[in-house]
Amino acid sequence: MSGLGKSTMGRASTISESVEAGLRFIGMWPRCIYANINWWTYIVSVAVVQYFQYSYILAHFDMKDLSVTIDGLSITLGYSLSFLKLINLWFNRRKLYVILDTMDKDWSDGIQSDVSTMIRHANLSRQCSNIMITTNALAVFFYTIGGPILRSIINKSNQETTTRELPIKMEFPFNVDNSPIFELVLVIQLFHDLSVACIIAMLNALLVTLVLHVSGQIDIMRKGLLEISPEKNTPEASLAAIKILINRHQRIIDLSDNIEDLFSNIALLQFIWNTLVICCIGFLIVISVGTDEGATVITKSLIFYVAITLEAFVFCYAGEYLSAKSKSISDAAYECFWYDLTPSECRVLMFLMLRSQKRLTITAGKMTDLSLEGFTTIMKSSASYISVLRALY
Fold it and tell me: Would you call 322 exposed, middle or buried from its count of C-beta atoms within 10 A (0-12, 13-18, 19+)?
């Protein structure tokens, strides 16, 4: 990727430095050195963690004490979602490379006025990426560190004996209660959970980045449509400008289709897993209110709940935003000076308007469009499951 360098107006890429670093870390960046080693090392580490997590759930499953089971299940399901997302990304990595190459060409081919619009969207992309990664990192800190620290403080104030408990529930084939093994496992859990949370935030930020890049291309196209005027250009120049816009529209459609192919299965997993994880965390928060462990559970789970909910919202809002933005192309074509164009130019413009009527979108498994309505469905389903679990408890 040759165009990912610096420009006089800023970094000539919509991909933020944090997203690029995350892709390099897991070996998904084009022509990354030791890509296969990075990928297999990381994915095997996640698989090993998953084995110990599910071993704990099977060993401690008890319908009479759902809180313990669901406490371990919530973070385990989050890890499972991360694992499946990474596997899906690996199988679609060539599609990712095509997308990145297309974005690189958009930056290389853009004129000065186009680049200013793209830089504005790139800056917004960086801000969104930093917010999502920071939120996930804070969620990990409070889940793995905040809860145990608060529990230790409460036990000391009540003069109770503190029990050593790992924040991420795992069943090991050896005893981890003794020092320094406990401290070593605790540190490994913290850094590994932090890496997984940041990688998943990076994938969410990647989706937002791609949608914002498409949005920037649509804004450039809309601006080009509004600048078509027979008073300023000759008929030949107007027709040439329309042809350029049609080619740009085709590139936008192709890029959107590639984004859809890359994230469709990930979005389906997001719909299913987020419903279950939000349900589990919400159930823990509900049953902990008013109990001795309430402050500890809420401290470690609340920001995790916010991070998971934000993750679902980001996917749904990205799909909604892309659909709404794509329909603005036909509006811009209608608002241009089409009534001053020649009949042949109007016919070409009409085909462009008809084509833009089919909105661009991201689907969940090719079954349903990602939208804010889908987000409300996730929240409603989670609330329903929380009510059922509360009744059983």
Answer: buried
Q: How many CA atoms lie within 13 A of 203 on its CB side?
A: 26
Residues near 63 by beta carbon (within 8 Å), at least 6 away in sequence: 392
CB 242 within 8 A of CB 352: yes
Percentage with pLDDT > 90 across the chain: 25
> H-type helices in the chain, by residue range?
17-25, 35-60, 66-91, 93-109, 112-141, 147-157, 181-226, 235-288, 294-335, 343-356, 372-392
159-189 pLDDT per residue, tens: 555 556 777 888 888 888 888 888 898 888 8
Q: Give CA–CA dist 80/188, Å, rounded.
A: 18
pLDDT higher than 70, residue 65: no
**Which has the closest alpha carbon to 221: 377, 97, 353?**
353
Beta-bridge partners for 11:
6
When computed from its CA atoms, the radius of gyration of the chain, rounded to whole angstroms, is: 25
Paired strand residues for 363: 369
365: region left, alpha or beta (phi > 0 left; psi from -120 to 50 alpha):
left
Alpha-carbon span 59 to 215, nearest angstrom: 49
Q: How far apart are CA 171 and CA 59, in angstroms?
A: 8
Angle at 122 between CA 29 and CA 108, to 5 degrees: 70
Distance, in Å, from the CA atom of 113 to the CA atom of 269, rounded to the nearest integer, reads 39
Omega within 30 of 0 (cis) for the link into 235: no
Nearest Cα to 156, choosing from 146, 145, 148? 148
Q: At what angle do helices 66-91 and 93-109 cross, to 10 degrees?
A: 60
- Whole-angstrom distance, CA of residue 337 vs CA of residue 228: 7
